Amino acid sequence: MNLESALPAQAAGFGMSWLDTAGPLLVWVIVLAFVFIECALIIGLFLPGDSLLFGAGVVLAQHGSDVNAWLLSGAALLTAVFGNQIGYYIGRSAGTTLIARRGGRVLNRHNLERAQEFLDRRGFFAIVAARWIPWIRTLAPLIAGAARMDSRRFMLATFTGGLLWVPTLVLLGYYGAGLLDAIPWVKTAALWASVAFFVFGTGYGALRYRQEMRRPVDEPADERA
Fold first, then answer.
1. 0.85 cut: is pTM over it?
2. What is the DSSP string of 151-220?
């Protein structure tokens, strides 16, 4: 092996060696926790869910376990469905009155009404499609619950959407990273980019959430009157 070919391999090993100690268990804990929060609680609106699932696949590819990737996909799918059910019953019992914030950039009444209109217009398919629309993904269960959407119909819609969302992103990251084995430095770059995006995205999301929640509640006009 000449020096030129050895350097990328050494760089790749340095870049990924920490994952040998972190292990897939850490990936499981992070993914399942964040998927639940994003699907059940309003703070999830600010979290990088799509990039997290894709990045988890990339990280698991370092360990080369197909079974682990598929099992995580299944567990994350069930967690997403369970989280949406929690969001649905929160909306059913508390409504959406306290979500909108006066002057909020994300949690404002305009966005809430847009999400409501989307669900009213598309119904069942709106819940399915909402998995791929970040801010609607978190609001949809709350609105569906507040609107008293049939619980069994909602369950079927959210399971169908989750089935098209979670495994697609995790397995795309896993098998996509596997294709880069022949180019170690590119695989290392993809791995670090995924981790960095998740870390900074989460930090930025938490900051945005704090800023939004510090604003006063924007009550509907009929309740202010």
1. no
2. HHHHHHHHHHHHHHHHHHHHHHHHHHHHTTTTSHHHHHHHHHHHHHHHHHHHHHHHHHHHHHHTSPB---
